[in-house]
TrEMBL record:
It comes from Cannabis sativa. Belongs to the WD repeat RBAP46/RBAP48/MSI1 family. This is Histone-binding protein RBBP4-like N-terminal domain-containing protein. PROSITE patterns: WD_REPEATS_2, WD_REPEATS_REGION. Pfam families: CAF1C_H4-bd (PF12265), WD40 (PF00400). SMART domains: WD40 (SM00320). GO terms for cellular component: nucleolus. The gene is LOC115706809.
Length: 478
């Protein structure tokens, strides 16, 4: 599995976000071409450009060092928010050059602006597609410049407020507890899993409207709890049903079960769950059964476990022909589990099929990506929608309920009145292919802001809201 960020170095501030589309800066306007990584090659003089009509909102930011993992922190601003500008809270762990330079960032992004866009763009213009952000390498600029994405005050600049807490070693993965989001668990490359209480930092961020310390001050804070595995790992998951219940899995194929004994203490079962023959890459608690969880491994399998019946898996099945890097359990359709592999494929499994004689769990399989899948996650609002990221520098969004309709496609092309050189073999389930980030590592949907996805990569974070997710469009007045 591709996990570490190669040659991590301090991120350079660069406002240009590249994406789908290709044209020459020096050449006259020409028809837009959809560019596919791993298929198309850039010719001399060509550059990739973003099509802003694909987004309701698109922002980029960074917190200094690259981050391999982050999580969205649930806030008290409202469970379902559709009006711009938006605010969101995050935690993220760094991948610094020196172990002593690592930290966990607790941050707030406010004034996330955007607007509703029509599915069918306005009449064709002769003006070439422009970048979502200006091509200015000024290290002091963090703001976006596209006028139609400006906030209500006339500025499109999002506000980043950051607090940093020292962390020993690189952060392989970090997760915030669903029920108490100020409690976070971090997996370090030192082999330790630590539990943190970030309530004071989150309270300070909530009370302020201006930049807090800019992240330049790194606070020293002791974790609430610490447990050492026999090796480092990446797999970790909080239970969505039992507050404080946690799982952690390592590269020695051991899975440890954590049970809270108080608000600030845990009992970790020293006898691990053992069943995989190679590194445990990801863990997911069942969204409906509090004692059931799933794991995936470099050995190509997915295993199902019950914490009540011993340390052996109750079932397992071959999921891919290569390493299984990531899994996601659908919280709206609990029989469905998605998995992503090192060979670039991802599959949808119906766990009910395990009861059948054939035991063929795969109900959908996609080979669109050409490089390892690095993250996969079901939408918290639509049971048939999921997002996938890959080492091919793409983040894709899929709606599995869609089927190809040639008449509808022809009608759409006629309405747009554009000569779009689009590949004919794109899967009909593919809603969006987002590009522009290098070395994408993890993505998450924001459960409180429908349609919002955040992703982290070697060159920073992106916040995007696609324009073609119909049920999540803001109101006309936004």
């Amino acid at each position: 599995m591709v996990r570490s960020i190669k040659n991590p170095k301090k991120a350079k501030r660069k406002n240009k976000v590249k994406g789908i589309g290709s044209s020459s800066a020096a050449a006259p306007p020409m028809p837009v071409k959809v560019w596919q990584p791993g298929v198309d090659k850039l010719e001399e003089g060509e550059e990739l450009q973003c099509d802003p009509s694909a987004y309701n909102s698109l922002h980029a930011f960074h917190i200094g060092w690259p981050c391999l993992s982050f999580d969205i922190v649930r806030d008290t601003l409202g469970m379902i928010r559709t009006e711009f500008p938006h605010t969101a809270y995050f935690v993220a762990g760094t991948q610094a050059e020196k172990a002593s330079s690592n930290s966990i960032g607790i941050f707030k992004i406010s004034n996330i602006s955007g607007k509703r866009r029509e599915l069918v763009p306005p009449k064709k213009s002769t003006t070439p597609v422009t970048d979502m952000e200006n091509d200015d390498d000024d290290d002091d600029s963090d703001s976006e410049s596209e006028s139609e994405d400006e906030g209500p005050d006339g500025s499109g600049s999002q506000v980043l407020q950051l607090r940093s807490v020292a962390h020993s070693g690189c952060v392989n993965r970090i997760r915030a507890m669903t029920q108490s989001p100020h409690i976070c668990a971090s997996w370090a490359d030192t082999g330790h899993v630590q539990i943190w209480d970030f309530s004071s930092h989150l309270n300070d961020l909530a009370a302020s409207e201006s930049n807090i310390e800019g992240g330049s001050i790194v606070h020293t804070q002791a974790p609430l709890f610490k447990f050492g595995h026999k090796d480092e790992g990446f797999a970790i998951d909080w239970s969505p049903l039992v507050p404080g219940r946690l799982l952690s899995g390592d590269c020695k194929n051991y899975i440890h079960f954590w049970e809270p004994t108080s608000d600030a203490s845990w009992k970790v079962d020293n006898t691990p769950f053992i069943g995989h023959t190679a590194s445990v890459e990801d863990l997911q608690w069942s969204p409906t059964e509090q004692d059931i969880f799933a794991s995936c491994s470099v050995d190509g399998t997915i295993a199902i476990w019950d914490v009540r019946v011993g340390k052996k898996a109750v079932d397992s099945f071959k999921a891919h022909d290569a390493d299984v890097n990531v899994i996601s359990w659908n919280r709206l359709a609990s029989c469905m589990l998605a998995s992503g592999s090192d060979d670039g494929t991802f599959s949808i499994h119906d766990l009910r099929s395990l009861k059948n004689k054939e035991r063929d769990t795969v109900v959908a399989h996609f080979a669109y990506h050409k490089h390892p899948i690095t993250s996969i996650e079901w939408s918290p609002h639509e049971a048939s929608t999921l997002a996938v990221s890959s080492a091919d520098n793409q983040l894709t969004i899929w709606d599995l309920s869609l089927e190809r309709d040639e008449e509808e496609e022809a009608e759409f092309r006629a309405k747009t009145e554009e000569e779009v050189n689009a590949p004919q073999d794109l899967p009909p389930q593919l809603l969006l292919a987002h590009q522009g980030q290098k070395d994408i590592k993890e993505l998450h949907w924001n459960s409180q802001i429908p349609g919002m996805i955040i992703s982290t990569a070697g060159d920073g974070f992106n916040i995007l809201m696609p324009s073609n997710i119909q049920n999540t469009l803001p109101s006309e007045g936004a």
